[in-house]
Design a protein that fits this description.
The protein has helices spanning 50-58, 81-84, 100-115, 131-141, 171-177, 196-203, 213-226, 257-268, 290-314, and strands at residues 30-35, 87-92, 120-125, 146-152, 186-190, 229-235, 273-279. The chain is α/β, with parallel strands linked by helices. The protein has a single domain (4-314), classed as Arginase, Chain A, CATH 3.40.800. Strands 2-1-3-7-6-4-5 form a seven-stranded parallel β-sheet, with helices on both faces. Strand 6, helix 8 (257-268) and strand 7 (273-279) form a beta-alpha-beta unit. The radius of gyration is 18 Å and the shape is globular. The chain starts with 29 loop residues before the first strand and ends with a helix. The relative contact order is 0.18. The mean pLDDT is 92.
């Protein structure tokens, strides 16, 4: 049954992702929902245009469905994503002009409806505010113990920002304070621009933790072992601004694409990732389009992770 049917009347027309087909019947392996919202952006609004820009970058006319070979060698046994997955582009929520309190309810209600299905879900933001209402709705629709992997240059852990509790700079704090996830079940990386006290609070110690790739993988597995569902949130500003000049709040430093892909593969190897989002892509400040290419590749790696987990369940 189509996921779109649950949300009809609130969505725009979809485009295809890497020529991955919709299912002939039943529910798709993956549902993709755009959440074009940026009214809580504190620096450069424009992330509301990201879902459409990502769709354009991932259409079959501009990209194929071969999994990324970044950080790995091509395998002759590697299959196209279009051969191993079905996907439904559910469209975009019409929340662009809603005030944060109203948008929170719209977004969480949509997530609650979608969580009742078996499909993996990928959400395209939008600024990082959207993760809070998404997780809020998902937990209502699919109860259980959740872990969160927060890949971001910022912790987004302020109690309020400019006097507002609903902001892209408070999203993770809202998730923890609302009891959606325990702070010990949050793995935040690399949060290079976070305040020291926020980093220590997230680590649960008086020592700031700096993960290596190996220690990150171990930490992700520990959280996966004690939770039922992992939610992965990818803020594109975790990457070098040279790679992603078009983000809502760029910061110096950051990862290269191979490092980010390695982190995502570590998380998906746990077999617990059910939901993911990509946020803070701002097409308005990148006329070159290179940020859209990076976002496209992150989408592809997430879809590859979902395909791997589908194989694990079938095996």
């Amino acid at each position: 049954m189509s996921l779109r049917k649950d949300l009809s009347g609130f969505l725009k027309l979809p485009e295809s992702f890497f020529h991955i087909p919709a299912p002939a019947e039943g529910e798709p392996d993956v549902g993709v929902l755009g959440v074009p919202y940026d009214l809580t952006s504190s620096y450069m609004p424009g992330c509301r245009f990201a879902p459409d820009a990502i769709r354009r970058a991932t259409t079959g006319e501009r990209s194929h469905s071969t999994p990324l070979t970044i950080g790995s060698s091509p395998s002759p046994e590697q299959r196209f994503l279009s051969e191993v997955l079905t996907l439904e582009d559910i469209g975009d929520l019409e929340v662009t002009n809603r005030l944060p309190d109203a948008a929170m309810y719209d977004i969480s209600d949509a997530a609650q409806k979608l969580a009742r299905r078996r499909s993996f879900l990928l959400f395209l933001g939008g600024d990082h505010f959207i993760t809070y209402p998404l997780l809020k709705g998902l937990k209502r629709g699919r109860q259980g113990k959740y872990g969160v992997v927060w890949l971001d240059a910022h912790a987004d852990f302020y109690p309020d920002y400019g006097g507002y509790q609903l902001s892209h700079a408070t999203s993770l704090r809202r998730c923890v304070d609302a009891g959606l996830v325990r702070v010990e079940d949050v793995l935040a990386y690399d949060v290079r621009s976070a305040l020291s006290e926020q980093r220590m609070e997230l680590s649960g110690t008086n020592i700031i933790q700096y993960h290596t790739t190996e220690s990150f993988q171990k930490a992700a597995q520990k959280i996966a072992d004690r939770t039922e569902v992992l939610y992965v949130s990818v803020d594109l500003d975790i990457l070098h601004p040279e790679i992603v000049p078009g983000v809502g709040h760029p910061e110096s430093g950051g990862l290269d694409m191979a490092q980010l892909v390695s982190l995502l593969r570590s998380v998906f190897s746990t077999g617990k990732v059910k939901y993911a989002d990509i946020v803070e892509f701002n097409p308005l400040v990148d006329p070159s389009g290179v940020t859209a290419i990076a976002a496209r590749d992150v989408v592809k790696e997430i879809l590859t992770g979902f395909a791997m987990q589908k194989g694990l369940k079938q095996g």
